[in-house]
Amino acid sequence: MTNIAVLGAGKMGEALLSGLLKAGRAPAELMFTERFPTRAEELAKTYGIEHVEVAAAVQRADVLVVAVKPQDIEPLLDEIAPKIPGGKLVVSLCAGLPTKLYERRLPEGTAVVRVMPNTPMLVGEAMSAISGGAHAEAHHLDLVEELLSSVGKVARVPEGQQDAVTALSGSGPAYFYFLVEAMIDAGILLGIPRDKAADLIVQSAVGAAAMLREGGGHPVMLREAVTSPAGTTISGLRELEKHGVRAALIDAIEAARDRSVELGKAHEIDED
Ligand SMILES: NC(=O)C1=CN([C@@H]2O[C@H](COP(=O)(O)OP(=O)(O)OC[C@H]3O[C@@H](n4cnc5c(N)ncnc54)[C@H](O)[C@@H]3O)[C@@H](O)[C@H]2O)C=CC1
Ligand SMILES: O=C(O)[C@@H]1CCC=N1
């Protein structure tokens, strides 16, 4: 039995706990800390998982999953650093935070794995990228991969790529939602009721995603198959190119990557 404690049970913490339960983990193997009592009560009631104090979490859990906002990491590290016994595995879900931040603050030799998941974890469709820190061994990465495989897909990446990954798949769902929202607005403009437009677009998004993943097609070939000579699609695509949508997406993802780097640097300055 591997005891897992989630430190900070917000959106990602809840998604992980709920996903692990759905995947068959026993509630007794799981616990969480949460600074807001009402939130803690609600989660304990919904999932039947124990809400514990930080001191109990660091003693009892084999794996500590840090799921607070990057801006909240310092007080959390101040709290756990004096209490955490050696030999624990620390898994950080925090955007931008390098493994070395934890390694400097926690007992010498603590194994740290940095993960960038995304919110589709709630429906078992997460994309999580994992990277081991200086003391993470193959068995630590295998364990994290096993845990996260129960809530989606897992890729191993060098830690140097984590800021880029954060921008691509961590933030990625938000960009798809933004596109869906804009396409629904277009439906409204064209006189389609909102709920009908939403059905049309969401199913189109699901179908397109299934073709990308299961059909094994290249996005360019899939798009060409939709684009008939002198047809409707090419008229729309010309507008997208005219408005620089491709460049806008590339710039957006680059800006998200830069912000991830910045989040990490803020803590490095404190540490050096
Ligand atoms: N929301 C997203 O799409 C993604 C978020 N992440 C990362 O996951 C982490 C969590 O993000 P969210 O779940 O969105 O944030 P959130 O704000 O929903 O959850 C954070 C939770 O931690 C609690 N908390 C803060 N400090 C605490 C402490 N010292 N002790 C106990 N509880 C504490 C807060 O009360 C809150 O419930 C962040 O570091 C973020 O970068 C990673 C990938 C995707
Ligand atoms: O916006 C954020 O900072 C977090 C990390 C990736 C997705 N959401």
UniProtKB/TrEMBL annotation:
- Which EC class heads this enzyme's classification? oxidoreductase
Q: EC number(s)?
A: 1.5.1.2
SUPFAM superfamilies, A to Z = 6-phosphogluconate dehydrogenase C-terminal domain-like, NAD(P)-binding Rossmann-fold domains
Pathway(s) annotated for this protein in UniProt: Amino-acid biosynthesis; L-proline biosynthesis; L-proline from L-glutamate 5-semialdehyde: step 1/1
Pfam families from the xrefs? F420_oxidored, P5CR_dimer
All copies of the Pyrroline-5-carboxylate reductase catalytic N-terminal domain together span 4-96
Alphabetically list the UniProt keywords: Amino-acid biosynthesis, Cytoplasm, NADP, Oxidoreductase, Proline biosynthesis
Write out the coiled-coil annotation as residue ranges. Answer: none
Compartments where found = Cytoplasm
Judging by the UniProt lineage, the source's domain of life is: Bacteria
PROSITE patterns listed in its UniProt record: P5CR
Question: What Gene Ontology molecular function terms does this protein carry?
Answer: pyrroline-5-carboxylate reductase activity
Q: Is Calcium one of the keywords UniProt gives this record?
A: no
Q: Which residues form the Pyrroline-5-carboxylate reductase dimerisation domain?
A: 159-263
According to the record, the segments passing through the membrane are none
What reaction does this catalyse? L-proline + NAD(+) = (S)-1-pyrroline-5-carboxylate + NADH + 2 H(+); L-proline + NADP(+) = (S)-1-pyrroline-5-carboxylate + NADPH + 2 H(+)
Q: What does this protein do?
A: Catalyzes the reduction of 1-pyrroline-5-carboxylate (PCA) to L-proline.
Family membership, please give it.
Answer: Belongs to the pyrroline-5-carboxylate reductase family.
How is this protein named in the record? Answer: Pyrroline-5-carboxylate reductase
Question: Upper lineage ranks?
Answer: Bacteria, Bacillati, Actinomycetota, Actinomycetes, Pseudonocardiales
The primary gene name is proC
